[in-house]
Structures are given as C-alpha cells and as structure tokens.
Amino acid sequence: MKDGFIKVAACTPEIQVADVDFNVDKIISQLEKCREEGVKVAVFPELCITGYTCQDLFFQNALLDKAMKCVVKIAKTTADSDMLVAVGVPVRANGKLYNCAAVIQDGEVRAFVPKTHLPNYNEFYEARHFAPYRGECAAIDLREYGQLEFIPPMEQTVFVCEEIPELVVGFELCEDLWVADPVSNYLAKAGATLICNLSASDEVIGKDSYRRQLVSNQSARLVAGYIYCSAGDGESTQDMVFSGHNIIAENGSILAESRLFENGITISEIDFKKLAFERRKISTYPASAEWDYSSKDSGFLDMDNISRERFSLEMGETALTRKFAKTPFIPSNQAERNERCHLILQMQSHGLMKRIAHTHSKTVVIGISGGLDSTLALLVCVMAMDLLKRPHTDIVAVTMPCFGTTKRTRSNAEILCDALGVTFREVDISKAVLQHFEDIGHDYNDHSVVFENGQARERTKVLMNIANQVSGMVVGTGDLSELALGWATYNGDHMSMYGVNASIPKTLVRHIVQYYGDTCTSDTLRDVLYDILDTPVSPELLPTDESGTEMTQKTEDLVGPYELHDFFLYYGIRWGFEPSKVKRLAKYAFEGDYPDEVIDKWLKTFYRRFFSQQFKRSCLPDGAKIGSVTLSPRGDWRMPSDAVAKLWLEDIDK
Fold first, then answer.
1. Tens digit of pLDDT for each residue in 251-304?
2. How far apart are CA 439 and CA 459, in angstroms?
3. How many Å apart are CA 204 and CA 238, to the nearest integer?
4. What positions carry a catalytic annotation?
5. β-bridge pairing 363-367 and 395-399
6. CA geometry: angle at 174 spanning 173 and 177, to 5°?
7. Which helix (H) or strand (E) holds 104?
8. How far apart are CA 332 and CA 325, in angstroms?
9. Whether 420 contacts 525, CB under 8 Å
10. Any idea what DSSP says for residue 5?
11. CA atoms of 10 and 230, how far apart (whole Å)
C-alpha cells in the first residue's frame, strides 16, 4: 500500500452450471493465487457460485441452500487473509430472491450487496427470478450454514479502509452500470473511490468495445478505480456465450484487461492517493457530507440506504506490475501519436491566428536558432498565416549569431527559412554584446552568467525593436520543460508577445517536429527538419571550438535529461505525487537506463530549480494551454515565488 497503490484483481473461474461444489473449489483456487500475488481486493463474477445461467433452477431451495453454505465455506478460507473479496450469489430475504455480491473478509461474510437494476429485455430474464433492490434491508442469518459470529446485512454498503482513508470500496452488479443513472454514481458521491462490478455480460459482436468504453468513461467521470469482472467459460451456451471480459481502469485509463474467452485472473494496481488528489483538485466534485442524498432525485439511494462499514488491511509495499511510461506526454501508439501532434499544431496555430488578427499585426517576428523550439514555433507561424490566408513573407525570421553559434545551426536556420518562404534576416550581435561588456566592465574571458545572459537579452532587444520596425509582434519559442526548470534568461528569451510553445514539454516538441517532417511534401524541408532533430539541445551561449562546428555547451549535460525532467513534471506537478513516490516510479520506469543515484541527482535539481525559478513563471507572456499541464500564472499553476523547497527535498532522501 506504499504510496497509495493497492493491488486488485478481477477473477473469472471456470464453472459448471449449478455445480456449486465445483465452482467454489475453482473460486478458492483463484483466491489462493491472488493471495500469493499480494492482492488486497478481489472480485468474482455475478452469481458465480451457482452460475448465472441457472434459469428456473434459482427457484430450487436445494441450490439456494448449497450456495449459502458455500459462501460461508469461501469466507472461512479467508480467515488468515485481509483480502476483501466479492463473489456473486443468490440470496433469499424479505420473502424475495436477490442477486447479490457477498462481501467477504477475515473469515466472515461481511455483507450482501443487492443488484438494483434487473435487465428483462432481449436475452435477459432476471426479473423472472430476482427482485430489484429498492432500499429495503434485511439481516441474513448464516448460523445454519456455519457462520456463527456475525449476521451480515443485505443492503447497499461502502467499505472504508481504516489504514488508507482514500480507499473506499463500493459494489454494483452488471446492469447497474449500463443504465442511464448508474448505482456507482451514488456510491462515488458517498465516498467510494473503487467501484467493483460483478457482471455476467454475454458476448455479441461489438459489445467488448462498448463495454471497454463504458468502464473507462465511468471511471473517468467518477474519478475512481473500477474493476469490471465478467462471467466466462462454463456458463450455459444454450442461448448465449460469455467471454470473461475483465477490465481494471483508473480515472479513464485501462490498466489491465483480459483476453476474450480466456478464464483467469487479471491483476493491476490502482493509485488511490492519485484519485484523492484529483477529486480534491476538481472543485465541482461533491463532498459526500455536503451532498443532499435525501432529495427526490436520488430515489431510494439516499444516505439512509448507503451504509458504511470499516475494514482493515495489513500495511506493506505493493509490488508494481502496471506500466508507467517513460514519456507520459507522448502516446506510445504511432497512429495516436500522429493524431496528437496534428491536433497540437492546430491548437497552437489557431491560438496564434487569433492573436495576430486581434492585434492587427502586419508581421510576426521570431528568433531562429536552428534548434527544435524555434523550429516548432516557426512552423506554427507558417500554419497561422495559412489560416489567415496571408503570405509567409509576413513572417520575419531573425537569426542572431554570436560567440556560441555553430555553422550547423546557422546553416539549418537559413535553409529552414528559405524552404518555408519566410522573410529571413541576419543580425550578428557579437559587436553589440562586446560593446555592452565594455560598457558594464565585464571581461570577455569571464564566461559566467553575465556572459551568457548578455547575449540572450541582446537577442530579445533586437527582436522587439525589429517588431517595432515592421509593425509586428514577437512570437516566443520557449517550451514547458524550460519553464519548469527556469531554463530561460529573465527578460531575455523568457519574454515575448505570445508564447506558442509554453504548454509543450521538450520531449513532445521533438515528436511534433518529427511529425511535420514526416508529412510535409518538400524534400528540402524534410531533410533540414531531420537534421535539426539530430542536433543536440543547446543555448549556444559559450564560444565554439576554433572550427566553429563543435558545441561546447549542451543543455542536458547541465540540467539533466529532459525525459527525466518531463517525467518528474508530469507526476510531481500534474498529479501532486510526493518526491519520494516520483523517485520510486522513475526508478521503476527507467530501470536499466539510469543508475539510482543519477535519478536522485536530477530529481533534486528539478525541485530546487522548480521552486527557485517560479518568479519567471509569475510573469509569463500569454500562450494557450495545450495539454493537461501548464505553468501559466493565469491558468493551472499559482505558486508564490518565495516558497521554500525544503519539505520536497527532504522527502527525496527519506
């Protein structure tokens, strides 16, 4: 349970219809495997003790008595385990028969949670055998079946973990999810962060895709974990087939999924601290104490009918099996990645188009270095002008070589501008910077921050003044990763009239430029874009070698690998994970790529710089939000510039 991770399982055992002893043996066998894997919450299919397809055999007392006796048998096998288990069973109560989830822990049946919505259409005839739950309660006396210490209730219940308050478990059964107003809506309002669905969903063409979307969307809407467990091989095939389609989801993401028609156990880990963080962040998410459950719109699912039971789990570290992408901002699927890149370019260019039109700018002015960020910004400028039906010559691209500019980047900048048909200007700033050094009494051989920032601020001054000359606006090129690290010169490349890359992390910039190169029709443009992609990231502020071809300054040597910093940014800032948890996930995701001490080093660098450089983010130029993370003071991120990083740095070492 360390860091909020709980291992969960959806279990589909082989069954035989109405052969309760056989079914229970298979259930117990899977429970043993779950225990070996460290599972803390295990869910089995709807009516799995008897089989969902018993039809009128559900009226037989022999079957019902045997089912209840075997529920107690399953419970007794869990006496030495803290695992919370749910199995499907028919239950007699109030003179009716209910389709229930038997919730089991610590050797006892803790509760029976009844099904609310009974399908009675097409191939389903549940209302023939079962009564729908309408808020009634009953005490189920299991003494004659072997459970002597506790009489479980039959009612809608959520289970609250004593040790992990973020873990609250609620149960619904199959159709309860498929209706217009799912039961899980009310369970989540009552505080449930994990919804367990015991299902017997038959398979027809296209239903697996719909089911997957349904589970994913409901977990996203509720900001919850969701375990969907369905019946499989062994159910009657008289009129239907069952595929055992099991799905584990978290806030819209599918963490694990079974193959159709393969019985077995599907396991993953759900992060309940992450879910709790997101719920706190979303101001419209209802607090359970404030929600009016007694309103008439809530029907029978009011506060009186959703009881709260407490359960305990033994604390320990959860071994991780789920995947954490090294590059969380970048889809792993090529087609999805291309679609994402196309959409981002559209968003960037439409944002810039609006700003150009609003300001009546005759031109846009952009500094071109031959690097990735300025290349992407220039491509966005071209697309914006195309949207405005204006010539590319209205884009004034300025290269400003100085002491650290290499022949390669200088050449690529010119080739790129020529291929795009923009107005190209070169302003060598060497003399101006040397004059400035003389004016302020700075030694050229002192390659300190003064040496570097003097060039960066000179470049911004040139761009701003050219913009005045040509009635234009300066387009910023800095990206999200640089803003997180403060890797920009204050009032230098930090400043512009509109920053098109401000919400794009460095690792994603590369893929967008790659996509543009892959899809463009010009061989010259494609070749220069590919060469820019192969060029190391550098501010080029320190002198080159004598030949002018070798860079002496590479950004990732100075501040660390951007793939690590983007990982830290996503999990540490977007999801609010503790630094120690970010470190754990980084070591897990990048195992074999970086030694542990290297991850520690750059994680500390990230937090030190993130805190100390907030003052640069507090006065950012405008720029549209593109992804789920933005550091604009007018958007998602508000932070005092004088906040102290001590707690975060201490947490890394704990």
1. 999 999 999 999 999 999 999 999 999 999 999 988 764 444 444 344 455 545
2. 17
3. 14
4. 46, 115, 174
5. parallel
6. 95
7. strand 96-105
8. 8
9. yes
10. E
11. 8
